[in-house]
Amino acid sequence: MQKKELGRYAYEERMPAGLYHLLNDYDKDNNITPRIVQALCRLIMADARDEEVYLCHFAVDHVCRIKGDGRHFCGYYNTQMLISYIRGAKAEGYEKFAGHLPSVLHLQYMIERAWDIGINEHGRVETGGIKGTRKHIGTQEVSTVAHWRFEESMHMPEVGYQHFMNQSDNQAAIYVHLRDNKADADFAGPSDIP
User: Fold this and answer.
1) What is the percent of the chain where pLDDT is above 70?
2) Three-state secondary-structure class, residue 94
3) What pTM was estimated for this model as a whole?
């Protein structure tokens, strides 16, 4: 992989110490906003200009960047939001992500650890390793985290990110029909907006 895929720090061996300490010492919950999807849903329903809107599942927590992070970790923040869905919707395997959402540095550790034991190990060859760097990650690394977390307890599909699209009772998205000023949720749970 080149700079195009990994970002401007594609060949970095270590991020600056100050940034590493910022990520390591950051209070894990300060950049997380729970229940933001419910608030967005209410605002959208109050505005009659839109007839149809698709939102993510109510269980998803919004994760924003950490002030001073240099805007290099959006793939990690998106992965944290995906994990918040698994936990909040109690999707299959949610107990594997108990406690705080894994930090950027912890996600890097998880990916590297999975590579160590042979899960999608070609990712390390392609990236040169990501632990302690500002290299970008993508769906392949998300798949790697999923395979590593779930390998002992359940069968993972061939492509790991499909696991997050549980089509039975925990849809990854909800459909809001605004013509009648009501919300129809396509997932198990109360039909009213929490």
Assistant:
1) 74
2) helix
3) 0.75
